[in-house]
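CHAIN AND CONFORMATION:
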Amino acid sequence: MKKMLKITGVVIGVLVVLAIVLLVAAKLIITPERVRKTVLPLAEKSLHRQVSIGDIGISLFSGISIENFRVMMKDEKETFVSAESLVLKYRLWPLIKKQVVISEARLKKPEIRVVRNKDGVFNFSDLIEGGKGKKSMSAKASLAAAQEKGGGPAIELLVSRVRITDGNLLFTDRFAAREPVSSRISRLEVAAQNISMKEPFPFEINGRLNHAPVSLSGNVYPAEGKVRADVRVRDLNLVDFEPYIKDKLPGRISSANLGLEASVEVTPDKASSLGIITADRVDMALDALPDAPFRNARFAVDHDITVELGRENLKILKAVMDINGISLTASGTVSGYGSKPELDISVNLPETEVQNILSAIPAGLVRDTKAEKAGGRVEANGRISGVVSKPVHVTHTIKADRLDLDYLIALTGGPGGKGSQDDKNDAEKSGGSEKQGGRKIKQNKDGIGPFDIPVHAEGRIQVGNARYRGLPIKDLLVEYALIDNLFTVKKFSADVAEGRAKGEASINLGQKEMDYTANFDMSSIQSGKVISVLYPKASWFVSGTAGMDGRFSGKGIRMPDIRKNLTGRANYQISNGRVSGGDATRELAALLGASELETLDFEMFKGNLRIDSGKVKIDGDYESKELRMKPSGFIGLDGSLSLALNLRLAPGVSTSLSSDNLVGRLLADKEGWAYVPVAVSGSLASPRLVLESSRIKEQLKEKATEKVLEKAFQKLFD
């Protein structure tokens, strides 16, 4: 805006100088020869440029016209300003009163060329700075000298109307980029009335900036140095101006049309704007997500902004942003925007449909799920503060009445989401890159990270009702912080499966492969509902009221790294439960010839877990009326099984074993509980049970030894 004001000021200055020198001629004996002799020296001395004019037409009763005048560049090789004609219409009677009243000053088809050189200096810079020298003479002084030379008194100038028609301004910038950047204002029309240096006067400017219609209309307040105007711009191609804004954008623009409708006020110390800025048909590739560009997007900002120019302070009184139909409001300040910008901005997302938010996201970030609909509404508010060159502070709260997590996971292609197997196959084909949400994520040979995120964030997320694989989750709460690249979940809690889950976690994003730790505590969870979600392919079913607490840590997000680095421990217990409906219990019943073992009721099942080297080591204690069990062994993180159940069958069960199965009766203890060593292999989805023959032989030997010793003692004491 400052540059355009400077350019406009220079052009108007040139025209005023020409007008003044013509008025001098009008006061003299008006002949073309006198006008030419007076105009050219005055103009060249004031402008420090070579000036040429064509035919001069003079009418004592109507005015003066000059055809084909031209002002050259400083190097005198190219034209700076030219016009087909300059017409000054004045009133004769005021001349007698020592006044020159211009009824109209009209400039026809002016051509203006402005250049910014590689050193950043404009081709008119000397016109602005030249007047500061002691030896230079102002236009007013030159006029006075000319009047003195002509022997006439000073005159008073009044201009009723100024018009510029069919003008062109070409701006060539060699400073902004390696190659020159050019912009053109064509069809320039300027009109001003009742021009005075003391009283306000109206003006109107119309034209086309690179073929985009532009208009300004308003008033100039010379005494206050103030301009008020209504500005309208339509379909301005922002790609033409990318060299000026590329460092301020998060990516590269290939298409964008700017629109502006605003009321603007400019003073020497302050500028303000109230109106709407729009950007339509935006195609932009984001630097952070090159495979997830915006396509045919729309952005709009309904704003009320004030800029304190001297203090470099921007006040956002109101900014209502529309991003592909999603409305955000903002207010706050940006201090020191020209040197070290410091932000203090509040942002609010009013209650909005989740589906609308997902539709506004670039297509590359989400999968095509047009057949599905995300339910629920979400609202958010936050604050951004701090110096831009340092980590800025972000605080926010997000609330949602309900969220379908299955749908969100399907959109991103996350674990358990639709297409996750396709992602795995794509990763194998791409030789080390993984696809998430339909986009490839490149990874280093050594994995991902470290990250340096220039943000300190604290947030709170609340969801009234969520659903994951059909499992209801109520009152979900997550409180987190991101400080110095350490992401911490300070609090997590939710009501799930008729129980309560809570915990804390942290991820170090500043380290390669991202170290992480987590603590968790679950109580009164209905285990059957959880197992059906976590292991939907499992044929077995465990019901009961479960609790678990533990801690784990690891490194990496790829499954091979997780299996290698994950460690942890946990304690668990399930009370008043039942094991049924699975291959495991059916195999156990068939193996021992006891059909009642296909369904097992138990009072308590408890134990502990230890995770290391891709395996979960289990030690447990199971007790029911039919059997007792102390399982031990490993469950692999890939779902593989290697367990020893260490069964003991109740007397009623062991005595009812089939006649061809003597193991239980042979290995019964004094209370009648029969020891049956059973090994489990296979996988969680398809377990296999076998009797451990080696353990049976050992137990039989021990049993035989006990019998021999018992008989020996009987003989000894009989």
Observations:
- Residues 2-27 form the longest helix (26 residues).
- The first strand starts at residue 51 and ends at 52.
